[in-house]
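Supplementary Note 3. Input sequence used for the single-chain structure prediction.
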Amino acid sequence: MSGQIITLSRHIIEEERKHPQATGKFTDLMNDIAFAAKLISYNTNKAGLMDVLGETTNVNVQGEVVKKLDVFSQQTMVNALDHNGHTCVMASEEEEDIIPIPEEYPLGKYVVLFDPLDGSSNIDANVSVGTIFSIYSRITPEGRPGTEKDCLQRGREQICAGYVIYGSSTMLVYTTGNGVHGFTLDPSYGEFILSHPNIKIPKKGKIYSVNESNFDYWKQEVKNYIHYVKQIDPPTNRPMNSRYIGSMVADVHRNLLYGGIFLYPASDTAPNGKLRLGYEANPMAFIVEQAGGKATTGKQRILDVQPESIHQRVPLFLGSKEDVELLEEFISGKRK
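The predicted structure, written as discrete structure tokens, is reproduced below.
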């Protein structure tokens, strides 16, 4: 980069210039998401000093107790995206139904799905949390309000996916299908600056990330894989190291940079898996694939799954290509 500072806005504009049909609307939409992320970052970093810690008396559509910062993050994302004429409909992990654009605002061609605060159960313990977002082009006629049909597209139809991680620094990582790029928020002048261009996940990693307290509820094939990666065998770089934060954004972000595999299998208590296809699995799968990794249900590529509902859950395994392929061998029965 020759010492040149590249902001998120500049990076997106330069990418749009490669497409003569671009109108600049996508740049505006991404700037809206970045603005929301800055507000959430500020409140997350001030959480111990402001009245945003703790729980509300509400339970969301997933049956989870809603944190105060969940409510703030949800409203911040909606307020940033509903009025500028870029979106036709939205959907959020926190809302039971799709989120229509108010009648007084113009409609756009983009569909945005998001998890406003992934890992929020950890927020009171000062553990990294994040925002995940996924963008599609609408498939219903323009000029009309978007519908649930717009939100039920396969992950391979995404035109952009990204996440923001609120940790020791705030980072925004995104892809439009042309590589994965990371931007760190510089608090001195409030801009996301390109810090991790063209991120590539190692083909094989040393880390596996899974909630092993669910071990007895998993299918035997997944148990066999975990047994295997924990065995001592230096020629195959085993054992792998267990690292599980409990915030998907943080676990996947670490593995994206260092290599490894993230697992959330189906289980006796969650036969369809626990993670949401639209808000978590699809955007993270798009990012990981664009970085050279792989994402699967164990039997099917995540991005090929046809959503049937906006809160559909799926098993999820994603990360370094060779690690995921080894897992698939156990699930298929090629390895025992």
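The mean pLDDT is 92. The first helix runs from residue 8 to 16.
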